[in-house]
Write a structure and sequence with these properties.
Blueprint: H1 9-19, E1 24-25, E2 37-38, H2 45-62
Antiparallel strand pairs: 1-2
């Protein structure tokens, strides 16, 4: 997994633009969580599987 701690919100926005997957950046919940993201699993299992596949592609492009 690439180190994204220093990328801030650009990590979240890049994933959205490139793969259509939305995450929430950590500082939304606490300023001390700037190196974290949140995932929400409020969809069908099939769509969650597809989101993880897209995340995997996005990560592989950065390794």
């Amino acid at each position: 997994m690439p180190d994204v701690a220093d990328q801030g919100e650009s990590f979240v926005w890049s994933l959205l633009r490139k793969q259509g997957v939305t995450l929430v950046s950590g500082p939304v919940f606490s300023p001390s969580h700037d190196d974290r993201v949140r995932l929400v699993f409020s969809n069908s299992t099939e769509q969650i599987d597809e989101a993880f596949n897209r995340i995997e592609v996005w990560v592989a492009e950065r390794l």
